[in-house]
Design a protein that fits this description.
- With about 200 residues, the chain is an alpha/beta fold.
- The protein has two domains: about 1-75 and about 185-200, no CATH class; about 80-180, no CATH class.
- Helix content is about 40%, strand content about 10%.
- The chain has helices spanning about 20-25, 30-40, 50-55, 80-85, 110-120, 135-145, 170-180, 190-200; strands spanning about 15, 45, 65-70, 95-100, 125-130, 150-155.
- The strands form two sheets. The chain has a three-stranded parallel beta sheet. Strands 4-5-6 form a three-stranded parallel beta sheet.
- Strand 4 (about 95-100), helix 5 (about 110-120) and strand 5 form a beta-alpha-beta unit.
């Protein structure tokens, strides 16, 4: 948003991801005004969802300007992820890790529901949830679904080193993502979008 004061004539690209437009932008009158100012000033947009590419029009972005929709953060660095999980052996029994903990804007009860389906298909699976120990919302969900035997609620990390390179939190996050990570090829549509940005003299 600070970059929205970039002088005219200097190309300005905005990127959106996550809840930028669905949660943060409408959070207050000030945030709404800054979002509109930023998107009006933008010469191009990069987003990780087609949804945001549509929503920006209601927030002041002129749609004829170039838009690139691609994987969040440009994809995954699998080499770095594999390096982070070096020495970690496959869990037995299998584990499903929720690395984010509780969020005020997420329906915790819905996020817990798939665990019951997983448990029915594999009674030995364990669910490890960070930063949820002693949290009433999480405890209520576990009790309601009857999955307490298969769930471990971890405490909130308090050490500055909790998120270090070799910390359990970071390593568990890498391991949980690694299970679903795949190389992301560069599609023709992606190349065309980049070419469109360059035609407008905007470079990534």
């Amino acid at each position: 948003m600070l970059a929205s004061d970039t002088p005219a004539g200097i190309p300005f690209i905005v990127s959106t991801w996550g809840n930028d437009l669905t949660l943060h932008a409408p959070a207050s009158a000030r945030m709404s005004a800054l979002t509109r100012k930023t998107l009006r000033r933008a010469d191009a947009l990069i987003s990780d969802t087609r949804r945001d590419a549509r929503l920006v029009q209601a927030w002041g972005f002129n749609r004829p300007k170039p838009v690139l929709v691609g994987p969040g953060n440009g994809g995954l660095d699998l080499a770095e992820m594999r390096k982070s999980v070096t020495g970690i052996v496959r869990a037995d029994p299998p584990q499903i890790i929720d690395p984010r903990g509780l969020r005020s804007y997420i329906r915790t009860d819905i996020s817990f529901r798939p665990s019951r389906w997983c448990w029915r298909n594999n009674p030995n699976v364990r669910f490890v949830c960070t930063s949820m120990q002693g949290q009433k919302e999480a405890l209520d969900c576990v009790e309601k679904l009857g999955i307490a035997r298969n769930v471990t609620l971890l405490p909130l990390p308090v050490s500055r080193n909790s998120y270090g390179r070799n910390s359990p939190v970071r390593r568990s996050r890498c391991r949980s993502v690694l299970m679903m990570a795949r190389p992301i090829p560069c599609s023709k549509r992606w190349r065309w979008a980049v070419a469109g940005l360059r035609r407008h003299r905007i470079y990534l």
